[in-house]
Amino acid sequence: MDIGAVWRGDCRAGGAGRGRVFHAVAAEPGPGGSAKTEQGIDGGAGPSQLAAGRIEGTCGSDGTESGHDAGQSRAESIRKEQKASDDKLSAQLGEVQKASDEKIGAVATEVGGAKKDIEATKTDLEATKGKLERSLGDMNVMSGLIAHNRDDLEELRRRGDRNYYEFTLQRSKSAQRVGPVQMALNRTDPKKAKYTLTVVADDKTIEKKDKTSGEPVQFYVKGSARLAPYEIVVFDVGKNQITGYLATPKEGGAAPPPAAAAPAAATPTAAPAKP
Q: Which domain holds residue 109?
């Protein structure tokens, strides 16, 4: 009989791990004359005696059951630790992703705001360009683009088509220098937005009478006969004061100098008389 098998079976059955095994042998009289019916294994029973063997111990003494339970417990502990580590890593990754999304969102908001500002600026420029217009001046010459306020004037300066000189004239008998010419304000009519001024250019005096705000007031100076005329545009008429600008052609657009006169033909020299 397999003693170990009996012991393991007792453990699995919930026993205390104790058992007895009997070996059936022929009964023989002992030294005292009576036959013993059983004897412990450790009592030294002979081969012809009925010997009883007892195995005592605690379940798991050979590592079979207790080792299995300990292995399961350790595996469960490792699984829990791994799960906790995975959960912690997932939480950290989630925080990093959230922070990244927030930063990307902030950058996208800033870029979107900048794009809106650019679009608004473009819209304003287009609106300003739409306001700029041409008109016939008081000399029936088509004017350049006309500015109706300082913003329009800044747009004209950015274009760079002509030279622009902004001015504010007070009513006075003495002329004031404005760019290459001089001007004097004679009178104003704020209710009708009209004014009269005198222009001094090339030692000539030109009076521009009862002109209206926004009207191109034109005149020529030496060298500009074949170019666009000089233009005065007033966009604000006040009491004894006007505000506007003078526009003159660019120097690069000046008329070419007249062609040089051809040299005079040489007069033939008379042949000397023969003696």
A: 78-131
